[in-house]
Specification:
single chain, two-stranded antiparallel sheet, TIM Barrel, seven-stranded parallel sheet, alpha/beta
Length: 257
């Protein structure tokens, strides 16, 4: 958080971290973030098992212990379970899992938490943006409004994608609006470094500001296949710093009611 604050001039209020299947709940990290005015999102990735096994109860003991730890903390936390399920690069994606298996597993995880009393979870369903030529209908993968609180999206500005917010996210948002009116979150986004990054940063902020259903976004500040780190592009970082100075960004989430 301190490194990010140095880069942009204010504290973040949304932090995404990646949790493996079998990991314990990071209560201390979640508490520390909350005490600094930020909410955490756990991107929970069920590697090493199958969604069918999860739905059939094979992980219930683990789920109950995890849910108890979340309940004891008693502060809001968002959980994005098995995200990017509409892609073919994850074992819970379209080549390994049917939509029915996905929905059944999601609902089972949700129900175990509810039965354990962990009602402080914001359940965040997070597909990747739809891709031309490989698109599969998202609606069969949706667990239902009774099991989802936020809709998360994952999408990146790249050199081969449109240079606009609507060009990148618009098709997916339009499709989702046909079956869900839940608040939306850009769970993972960033812009490829280079001469277009400052332009892409402007497109991101203007799109978020103009979208009343969006509750925020999380910048993927890592080097993975490309250097998505904000300070990889001084011009992009300067534009991010300028635009994030608006009071719409970086507010203390503890004050939201």
């Amino acid at each position: 958080m301190l490194d990010w604050a140095r880069k942009v001039g204010k504290q973040p209020n949304l932090i995404v971290y990646y949790a493996g299947w079998g990991d314990s709940f990071d209560a201390s990290g979640t508490r520390n973030a909350w005490n600094s005015g930020a909410m955490t999102v756990a991107s929970w990735e069920p590697h090493g098992t199958t969604l069918t096994r999860i739905a059939d109860g094979a992980s219930d003991s683990y789920l109950r212990e995890y849910a108890k730890a979340v309940r004891r903390l008693n502060i809001p936390i968002a959980i994005s379970f098995a995200d990017e399920m509409n892609g073919d690069w994850e074992q819970w994606g379209t080549t390994e899992t049917t939509p029915q298996e996905y929905v059944r597993a999601w609902r089972h995880v949700h129900d175990v938490f509810e039965a354990t009393g962990a009602t402080n979870v914001i359940w965040t369903w997070s597909p990747n943006i739809v891709q031309p030529g490989t698109h599969k209908d998202l609606s069969p993968l949706y667990p239902g409004d009774g099991y989802v609180d936020w809709v998360g999206l994952i999408g990146y500005f790249t050199d081969w994608d449109p240079r606009s917010f609507d060009g990148l996210f618009g098709t997916t948002l339009t499709e989702i609006a046909r079956f869900s009116r839940k608040p939306q979150l850009l769970l993972e986004t960033a812009a490829m470094p280079g001469r277009h990054r400052a332009q892409d940063v402007r497109a991101l902020f203007h799109g978020v500001t103009a979208s009343p259903d969006l509750v925020g976004f999380a910048w993927f500040d890592h080097k993975a296949r490309a250097d998505w780190r904000l300070d990889a592009s001084p011009e992009g970082a300067a534009e991010f710093r300028r635009l994030s100075a608006d009071d719409l960004y970086g507010f203390d989430v503890r004050r939201v009611r």
